[in-house]
Design goal:
single chain; 151 residues; mainly beta; Hypothetical Protein Pfu-838710-001; 11% helix
Amino acid sequence: MEIERKFLLKTLPDNLEDYPCRHIEQGYLSTDPVIRIRRQDEDYYLTYKSHGLMVREEYNLPLTKDAYEHLLPKIDGILIVKKRYLIPLAPAYPDLTAELDIFDGELSSLILAEVEFPSEEDANKFIPPEWFGEDVTYSMDYHNSVLSQRT
């Protein structure tokens, strides 16, 4: 089960380059249901996500590089390319990390932060840091599967 909230940003945090960064590219074989392939650095995955906004099922299966490259030409829509910075939200939330995505290519004007939670209760009680902007958790427009359909 994935429980997450998603935010636009007011500003980038200071010293962004000091945080761990992952290079991600992902494409969608289907957007209904959501079936995604992803390369994250040198790891490859096939993911299924159920319908939902803040709470939904998510299953990740490992892929080989060859399987990923075989499926890549079959994606529907654009390939999403982004850098993901992992920013701890301590001391306010010592067990939470913001995943800050800076998109490249056709989505290069977009920056989002996602925070995953252990429970719906924790997600609902979360008070975002000052540098977070609008909460877009309940907007389908900011799901990566929807973003992949932009031209």
